Amino acid sequence: MHYAFSSHTDRGRVRANNEDAVRVEPARGLALLADGMGGYNAGEVASSMAVSVVDAQLAQRLPVPATPASLAAAPPAVTPIALRDALQASVDAANRAILDAAAATPAYRGMGTTLVVALFRGPLLYLGHIGDSRGYRWRGGRLQRLTRDHSLLQEQLDAGLITPQQAATSPQRNLITRALGVEPGVRLDISEVPVQADDCFLLCSDGLTDMLDDAAIAQLLARPWPPDQPGLDRLAAALVDEANACGGRDNISVLLVRAGAD
Could you give the strand order of the β-sheet that contains 200-204, starting from the edge strand earlier in sequence? Predict the structure, then answer.
């Protein structure tokens, strides 16, 4: 299996700065996306720290696959438990770093960030997330959400207190219940997702999903985009452009990964 990566981020039409951060490391099959929160650029600091620390920690903890260009060959032996432990330990390190920075700098107090991390190993995706940034899989004309928001709105939906229609206009839609940099300990939800050739994975901040529902995202993904890297780049840009056309009320970040058979 080989993977093509593309990302696009934009501050949107309302916000003065961009507090999202994205990072892609194709040689290691790694994609990271974070959506920061906090006053006076503190969210921007927290999201940047999250992707930088997690990236650096995973580089130390996990060996690089034997064939960096394609990830085709089996990577050095790492058990699923070891992969999960490495992901959680890397997030723990990022959480501590953000808390320490907030304690040391008054302007950073109260900052935090969501995080979604995708680690591709052969025909498997290890997908971890904290907060309401999401991961999706597009396969065979169907869009499937792979993450569950850590948000007050999601808890209300799960409890049957509100309907999806009410959720779409709720003033509490951006209240998250789990984030990096908020408490001394934070748990990363991790899923193991089988990958097939022609799967396309989407990681995104809520700047996309607040403007476009799943049906609108699926419509864009269903267009006959070329399977090459420029096609993936155009698709990433099209998703951001459509969110801006619908209002662009928040920073918008998307990260796409397309799988192909060797």
Answer: 2-10, 252-260, 200-204, 134-139, 142-145
Q: For the chain, where are the alpha helices, taking DSSP H only?
A: 42-61, 80-104, 152-158, 164-168, 206-209, 214-221, 229-245
pLDDT for 33: 98
Q: Residue-wise over 158-171: b if at least 16 C-beta within 10 A, else e?
A: eeeeeeeeebeeee
Kindly state the tokens that stand for 256: 């796409």
Dihedral angle, C-alpha 61, 66, 69, 72, nearest 10 °? -110
- Poorest-confidence range of 36-40, 87-91, 147-151, 234-238? 36-40
Residue 16 tokens, joined: 């003065």
CA dihedral 34, 164, 239, 47 (to 10 degrees): -10
Q: Structure tokens of 29?
A: 């099959």
Task: Give the pairing of strands 2-10 and 112-113.
Answer: unpaired
Question: Over the stretch 176-211, which tens digit does the pLDDT of each residue have?
Answer: 999 999 999 999 999 999 999 999 999 999 999 999
CA distance 128 to 192: 9
Whole-number Å distance between alpha carbons of 233 and 59: 26
Structure token pair of residue 95:
């959480």
Given a contact cutoff of 8 angstroms between Cβ atoms, the answer to whether 256 and 229 are in contact is no
- CA count, 13 A, side-chain hemisphere, 74: 4
For the segment 5-47, what is each residue's pLDDT rounded down to a tens digit?
A: 999 999 999 999 999 999 999 999 999 999 999 866 799 999 9
Q: How far apart are CA 81 and CA 83, in angstroms?
A: 5
**Does pTM top 0.90 for this prediction?**
yes
